[in-house]
Predict the structure.
Amino acid sequence: GKNNTVQFVQPNSSSVALNRVTGASGSQIMGTLKANGQVFILNPNGVLFGKNARVDVGGLVASTKNISTTDFMKGQYTLSGSGNPGAQVVNQGSLTTSKGGYIVLAGERVSNSGTVTTPSGKTILAAGKTVTLQLDNGGLTSVSVNGSVVNALVENQGLISATNGQVYLTAKGQDMLLNTVVNNSGTVEAKGLANRGGEIVLNGGDSGVVSQSGHLLADSQTGQGGKITLEGQNIHLAGGSLTTATGKTGGGEVYVGGGWQGQDSHIKNASKVVMDKTATVDVSATENGNGGTAVLWSDDYTNFRGTVLAKGGAKSGDGGRVETSSHRNLQTSGAVDASARAGHGGEWLLDPTDVTIVGAGADTGIGSATADGTDIFTPTASGGQILNSSIVNQLNAGTSVIVKTSGTDTDGETGNITVNANIIKTAGTDAKLTLLADNNISTGDNVSIGATTGKLNLDLLAGNTTNNASISLGKFINISLNGGDLLADAGNSASGVSLTFTNNGKIKGGNVTLNLSLGLGGYAYNVNADNDLTINGSVTGSTGWGAVLGFTAGGKLAMNSPGSISLQANDAGNGGGRVLISGDKGVTLNAAAGTVTLNAAKAATNGVNITSGNGAVSITNMVQDGSNGMTLTNANISSKDGIVLNGTTFWGQAVVMSGVNLTTGGDVDITGLAKNLTTGALGVASSSGVQLSGSNISSTGGNITLTGTAGTHVSHPSISSLQVSNSTLTTNNALTLNGTTETTTGVKVTGSTLSAATLNVNGVAHVQGTGFSLATSQLLGGLADLTNVSLSSAGSAAGAQNVLDNSIVNDANRDTLLA
């Protein structure tokens, strides 16, 4: 009765009193129950603790299930059997244990609207076919709930408190569909007063809904936050709910629907997870230490609209880790804050299959929960969507954001990322955005990605597990990172990834690294790096209409292609285009197994322009077919510290330069090698080392060396190993012309002007032909009186000729020169 007291006086806290109630009525405890040990109350008709009930025991089990006497006497505590229809275990009063004690309420339907307190102990509300308890020395060491039952329900509308302890709300329902199996609308506390917070688990089994609309608190005011796990088929974090595991010395852990990336075998992965707009998850460090870990995961559908906090400590510590993901459909418009006032920002991972980043008004698939909750788990869009403002807000807070896709054949989605809205960081310290796609990355037209405050580091990583993936940038793309670094890479793909500009575009960053093939075509494109610009892949680009195709680096600029490099400024529309390549600390273009082609339809200010303010320019290639190795047309190359051009081909023209201007304060070294052919009597009519026409080469402080070597079997009379025509070569130091051939001409100079301190011409025709030929050309500067001119054909065959007809302006000295 209400005012009655029942007290169990037991030998010690390990003692267990079994009260098996028979009859047709349920047990009603309306007064006070006390025990210094453990008390079992088993009644198949139900157990009710009324509003005025006061229970103070060492341990308590109240259940509609039964236990065999034999098992009980052996200390084997397995509760089994079904209670009578409609039987429940209900607490409306106050249930309390001594320190380290336990309370177990078990049946088919269990509810608490009162208060349950188990300091440093365990509270278990369980609905299932069997419940097995492991007791030791008066305490509950473990519990397992097995087997499903029809209409299973565990709900808490009151207060459950297990300071420094654990709370488990577990229900195993059968064919529950969208019916709720675990429902918390009250408060569950497992706060820590010692080193860290306690543990709270809501487990809905394989069927039904786990609903969290109340407070789940595993915080610690002295140590690290605790751990909260919600697992089940479908999980709903309702608006206004609070799920926290904060800590004074570090954040705790909250797992909703699975572990990190759904790979924790100890946590059941949910099918669907919905977090409403005003729901909050918090794993922050409140004073010192790093933020904790918070995960929302589902196998099929996650709708994240709430707020997740994983902030670093106010005095010290970095931000924590947050993941809001789905193996298939992810809808994201929520907010994440993993910032750190006194440390580095944390990380936010989003991991669906295909996903599109959209702007406000375009988020058609990110719907809100309905009032009755019957269809909140039904996606309103087939593909994943992320609201751009959700990403921007976290970048502004210094949180790094990772959008990762994982392809699946089940729905035909291959793991693509599409950016259809601007992502502009406008506040806060430096942050990083990573787009990591199993397959392709693409943007819409007129999209901007960048920062106006603080650096934004951007990684575009396509082809993580897929071959032949691509990064495709839409028209008028603008990537401007405010000094942040850009990395575009092939990830773990077995083959190269291509980066394609659809139309006018701009990239600007601190260090820019493109580990992929770069395709540019048709309009204006600019790739700029405040520091180093590195492209490791084939580069193909063309522009016209007076537009500019530009590559600029404040540090070193390097294009390292396993294939070819081709940049062309065409004569189209309103005028010829321009190609600009500039590296303040050096420019290197290297085509390891392909051609280098730098062509412009028009010269002068239009055309191809390569400059290096404080470093050398180096262009090299190796091609193993009949293509021209290196072709430069209407190109302007200037460098403070020297220019190196090194072209190699098997049976084409190794280096071909037309309308080219080279200017440097250092050495100029141009080498063209047409490799020997070893195919017997094969004749090649057009293989040469270096062809220079209509060009100018000038060095104010270095030497100029041109070396051309033609392959064997070359028989065309108009082809020379080194051929200079209608060009000007000027240096204050030495000028050296080297050419080696089999049967044609080693060095041939016509209609040109040579000005240097000394001139060395070394022409060799191994079999027959001409060692060197200088015709209709001028020798100026230190060469005018011929005293500093050295001509050699050493190594040529006996029948080889040397030609100097009309080559020397000072005819009076011709005989001396010939001698």
Notes: Residues 642-677+684-818 form one domain. The chain has a mean pLDDT of 87. Helices lie at 69-73, 388-396, 814-818.
